[in-house]
Specification:
alpha/beta, 720 residues, single chain, 24 strands
Length: 720
């Protein structure tokens, strides 16, 4: 029987009215499976691959005649904007149905939420944070609200894996099943990923083989692109002015900005960068150039620090305007429908191949169109004082590596085995807030065993409880009941508690009382007075740390001092850095590199050949991923070796061979890892929201899994 014939008559009429001529293969297969032989399902396809309809058509059909009596489908999204977007699509599929579709997030209509609590029915679209809020604020309604659900749809599941939100979501789903006593089918929607079988284990750890995997088999669209490099103008060089005092256009804006303006002044474009400050700078420049050239302003910006109404206005313009260019962070990476984009541009290389693929999926969605990317990269001009990273053109090489891996079909495997101690603490506090109190064995059963599937040992659990007690977050009554202390109540009652993740902690960097940028704590194990680092293309020395308000006072660094850390904000996967090494070693020149950028690449190859590959080099190349690099840096710190930590490895004045001897002498079997990690100040090991509530031994475990790789470092040293 064909998929269409299996659907409820009400839904068939809607499909006829929408004038659908046929279903996509992924939709056909999903309908047949979920109606004939239902189980947990993963639907994997590229952006605009029809995943939403593949999930909702069969399950709406199944609840068409029963959805008015209870909430039957719970759709979970990583973004409020995606909920708003999907609401319209689901609503159009349900317009002949007798049940409501309810949005539930911080900005959703309160009266409709209240109505749903009183009379649960239909489909609920919600974020993990709002589910957390329900556990704490609507505890008595959890069973009536979720007790009849038949399906949980998790959108963009790849965005949840390996981070606090995913850990929280899995815990909340397990707790809901424990409260209601039911096990709804879970349907996960995902972009194309390399280790989809691991996602099945994440979705159903008890029976991963029962999870049906349905993948889009359509051939990916052709991709075209360009990488172009520009020399950065010397800092503080003032633009010349004419007699009227107005700046001269040709000198006010760099060649990069002028070329970028020519490209994005027409069509629909998304421009990504890793820094909000950089996005603001470039958006402002484009708006100014449009004004000076008497052209309409089509340039907008979209990132998480902007007010909701500004972001929503931008999203609406993207959906309706054919001629618009938006400077954005990852906020526009996920699946909110903004229509076809002509091209996707990058001002800095993305942190991962998966991110590049996801962003590029925004383009080429119309028939007979191609996906198009462009990189506009700014590199420092070389002189006698240039740093190694300038000479090696790391940004350019990383961009090429990411594009090459994407072309080869590589995507970073998602880490489904992460044990997130911070969210374990979060869920312990959540349960105490929900229940009012429990003894230790009840608490461990509810969270350690049920919510986290025995991921954490009883020893870790007891140590965490003892630390929470010492910090006066919890206390124990005479009858052994554990409950929240005043400090714990304050944490749980805060609106910010609903999110298991924390906003990235950044330090303001000040030079002569002027902010020159911000520095993330992510890789700053050497954040100490006297340490050197790179920011905004310059070398700085930390003159003073003001820990209370996260301010770093800097002065210009002396050239002779070693760089102790870089200002990067995310870990780079090993495969990217290994591809970078291959590019250096083979002098690989891609066909998508602009001709005027070739000298930058040749400078990188020449530097690698003469300064790194040479037998008497002072540089030990690692290029094995950020976690191995961090581990080697920490080992050298313990050995009191003054090696310069550059992005590609280490510079040692006494020579690479001497550095290799030092590393080879390390006995990993006798290594006291806790003592080693304790060289880092405790506050600098806080990478997740509730790390500050972890006891030292557990905090070191948490820091190790986030930032270090002892096994990988040992294998790297063995190969030297």
């Amino acid at each position: 029987m064909e998929a269409f014939d299996l659907l409820n008559k009400k839904l068939q009429r809607i499909i006829h009215e929408m004038k659908w001529e046929s279903f996509r293969p992924i939709q056909n297969e999903a309908i047949l499976h979920l109606i004939n032989s239902p189980s947990d399902v993963i639907l994997s396809a590229q952006t605009a691959g029809g995943k939403t309809e593949a999930a909702f058509l069969p399950i709406i059909s199944q609840i068409a005649d029963s959805g008015e009596n209870a909430v039957k489908i719970v759709y979970i999204s990583p973004l409020k904007a995606l909920i708003n977007d999907q609401f319209s699509r689901v609503e159009s599929l349900c317009k002949n149905m007798d049940f409501p579709i309810t949005k539930w997030h911080g900005d959703a209509n309160q009266s409709k939420k209240t109505k749903l609590i009183k009379d649960p029915a239909g489909i609920l679209l919600i974020t993990p944070e709002s589910i957390e809020s329900l556990f704490l604020n609507k505890t008595e309604y959890l069973k009536s609200l979720f007790g009849s659900m038949e399906y949980i749809v998790i959108d963009e599941i790849h965005s949840f894996i390996g981070n606090e939100r995913g850990t929280q979501l899995r815990s909340l789903m397990n707790r809901l099943e424990d409260i209601t006593g039911i096990h709804p089918y879970k349907i996960a929607l995902s972009a194309t990923i390399s280790n989809i079988e691991d996602i099945a284990k994440w979705l159903n750890p008890d029976s991963p083989n029962s999870v049906k995997i349905i993948q889009d088999t359509n051939k990916p669209k052709e991709t075209v692109g360009l990488i172009k490099c520009y020399a950065r103008k010397p800092a503080n060089k003032k633009s010349s002015s004419n007699n009227s005092g107005e700046s001269n256009n040709s000198e006010e804006f760099s060649p990069l900005k002028q070329d970028l303006f020519k490209v994005i002044r027409q069509g629909k474009n998304l421009i990504f960068a890793n820094s909000k400050m950089l996005l603001e700078e470039y958006c402002d420049a484009m708006q100014t150039m449009a004004l000076q050239n008497n052209l309409p302003n089509i340039f907008y910006i979209h990132h998480g620090s902007l007010a909701k109404n500004i972001r929503e206005e931008c999203e609406q313009l993207l959906k309706t305007q054919p001629n618009i260019s938006v400077f954005c962070t990852g906020t526009l990476e996920l699946g909110i429908d903004i229509g076809n984009v002509n091209r996707v541009l990058f001002l800095t290389p993305p942190f991962s191949v998966a991110s590049m693929t996801q962003r590029l999926g925004r383009s080429g969605r119309k028939k007979n169109t191609r996906k198009e990317f462009r990189f506009f990269l700014e590199e420092n001009a070389l002189n006698e004082n240039s740093d190694w990273e300038d000479k090696l053109r790391v940004q350019l090489i990383q961009s090429i590596a990411i594009v090459e891996l994407m072309i080869q079909g590589f995507s970073e495997p998602l880490n489904t085995a992460t044990f997130d101690y911070s969210t374990f603490v979060h869920q312990i506090l959540s349960y105490l807030g929900q229940s009012g109190g429990a003894n230790a064995s009840e608490l461990y059963h509810a969270i350690g065993e049920t919510a986290f599937n025995h991921a954490f040992s009883k020893k870790d659990f007891i140590e965490i409880l003892q630390n929470l007690y010492a910090e006066k977050i919890i206390y124990q009554l005479a009858d052994k009941t554990i409950t929240l202390d005043k400090a714990g109540e304050k944490i749980v009652e805060s609106y910010e508690f609903y999110a298991a993740f924390a906003a990235a902690k950044e330090w303001k960097v000040l030079y002569n009382n002027r902010e020159i940028g911000q520095l993330s704590e992510t890789n700053s194990m050497f954040l100490e007075e006297g340490a050197n680092f790179l920011l905004a293309g310059k070398r700085w020395e930390i003159a003073e740390l003001k820990k209370a308000n996260r301010v770093i006072i800097v002065k210009k660094a002396e050239k002779k001092k070693s760089i102790k850390f870089n200002s990067g904000t995310q870990n780079t996967h090993q495969a990217i850095q290994q591809k970078m090494l291959e590019i250096y070693q083979t002098n690989f020149i891609p066909g998508y590199l602009s001709k005027n950028s070739l000298p930058f690449l040749q400078e990188a190859f020449e530097t690698y050949k003469t300064a790194i590959a040479a037998p008497n080099s002072n540089i030990l190349v690692t290029l094995e991923g950020t976690r191995i690099q961090n581990t080697l840096a920490l080992l050298l710190k313990q050995a009191e070796i003054d090696a310069e930590n550059i992005e590609t490895g280490f510079f040692y004045a006494k020579g690479r061979q001497e550095l290799v001897k030092i590393l080879k002498s390390i006995d990993f079997s006798a290594l006291d890892k806790n003592a080693l990690i304790n060289l880092i100040d405790r506050p600098f090991k806080y990478k997740k929201k509730f790390d500050y509530l972890l006891p030292d031994t557990v905090l070191n475990k948490s820091y190790t899994q986030e930032c270090l790789d002892f096994e990988g470092a040992e294998k790297f040293i063995e190969k030297l």
